[in-house]
Each structure stands twice: as C-alpha cells, then as structure tokens.
Amino acid sequence: MNLLEPNALLIWPVVFNLIVIWGVSLYYSTHSGWSARPNAHGGLHICAHCHRVYEDERSDPRVACPRCGRLNDRIYIADRSKGES
Ligand SMILES: [Zn+2]
After folding, report:
1. CA 65, CA 45: separation in Å to the nearest integer?
2. Ligand 1 centroid, distance to 65 Cα (angstroms)
3. How many Å lie between the centroid of ligand 1 and the Cα of residue 72?
4. Amino acid 59: pLDDT
5. Which residues contact 80 (CB under 8 A, 6 or more apart)?
6. How far is the CA of 60 from the centre of ligand 1 (A)?
7. Could you give the CA distance from residue 33 to residue 85 in angstroms, rounded to a whole number?
8. Closest-CA residue to 36 (of 85, 83, 71, 74)
9. What is the pLDDT of residues 72-82, one digit of tens each?
10. In angstroms, what is the span from residue 19 Cα to ligand 1's centroid?
11. Rounded to whole angstroms, how far apart are CA atoms 58 and 71?
12. Looking only at Cα atoms, what is the longest distance across the chain?
C-alpha cells in the first residue's frame, strides 16, 4: 500500500492528531505543576495578619502561621473539573 495514494492520505490527519494528543498527554503527565487544590490531609492557609500563604498537612481546620503564629482557617478552592461552582 502506497502511503501517498489518495485513500492513504486520509489516514495522515488522524495519525497527526493522535501524535499531538499523545504529546500533550505526555507533557501534562510530567509537568503537572503546582496544584492549588487542597489534598485530603491538609490544605492551604492565608494568614490574615501577615498575608503569608502556607500549606499544612494536618487535618486541623485552623493552623498557626509559621511566621507570626496567628491561627488561620483553611481556604478551599473549588475544583472546576468536578463541576462544583
Ligand atoms: Zn502570619
């Protein structure tokens, strides 16, 4: 089968798209980056006094700021991929 004959040319856009999808999935699997989503064991906190942003792995809803010691509530960021608003 000649890969340049008219019927075979219809395959090339499909193959090209599969390669692009594979490349994008490979990129995002290795470059997941920083996630603002709190995990099951902790979360993000923003200090109301000194505005420091810190993460804590304890399950306590209020954790002391490592800079000034003030207790701050955990913040929740909606996960839009799950359809929350
Ligand atoms: Zn603070």
Report:
1. 8
2. 5
3. 8
4. 75
5. none
6. 17
7. 23
8. 74
9. 988 876 666 65
10. 48
11. 14
12. 73
Please say if the pLDDT value at position 4 is more than 60.
yes
Position with higher pLDDT, 60 vs 39:
60
Separation of 58 CA from ligand 1 center, angstroms?
Answer: 18
- Cα–Cα separations (whole angstroms), residue 47 to 40, 42, 53, 57: 21, 16, 6, 16
CA of 67 to the centre of ligand 1 (A): 5
Ligand 1 centroid to residue 9 C-alpha, Å = 63
Q: Report phi then psi at 75, rounded to 5.
A: -105, 145
Residue with tokens 């890969």: 3
